[in-house]
Give the backbone structure.
Amino acid sequence: MCGIVGIWGPLGDKAQVLAESCRRIRHRGPDSNGFWEDTGAELALAHVRLAIQDLTEAGHQPMVSACGRYVMVFNGEIYNHMDMRQQLEASGLAPAWRGHSDTETLLAGFTSLGIEATLQASVGMFAIALWDRASRKLVLARDRMGEKPLYYGYSGAELVFASELKGLMPIPGFGRNLNRNALASFMRHNYIPAPQSIYEGIAKLPPGTWIEFTADDTRSRR
């Protein structure tokens, strides 16, 4: 189990804010934590890691693709990632592998096959945040069964996302107004179904879906 969190917007000193977010979700990844920022795009990613697939620094996140275009934080496990590697190698599309992590395999797939094809080929449990530095697009994705959680929404002018709601709480301006419809769902079903969350303005990405955000989406909030 790992944890991911990110901010896209004009908020200053994202490193300090996300450091506190990582502290709040430290139980998800006690082995290490990482931070990456694209200051020009006003986007920052953070990750707390439980090392399983690759115990070395080669598995550290946030991870940049071999081509430098994509940056990703990832929570979960891709069970067939070695098969995916072999298919990339057989087709001549594999990069020079730096390690043995499924994170690196996913990045190679996104680079060579595209986002949709790679997600469809991936068998496992996952929550992914993928930043495209070339097109300045952010993709959030969740596994088919919804085993790994992923929340997203807006906190003021910032687009924010995290594995757990407590990871969003240190972000300045994050509202804690209860979503009354979600509360009613909880009273009726004893859980809150996606896409609702307990807080207004924050949604839970439904299982088996992915969503794309562009710079226009964040500018419209300012």
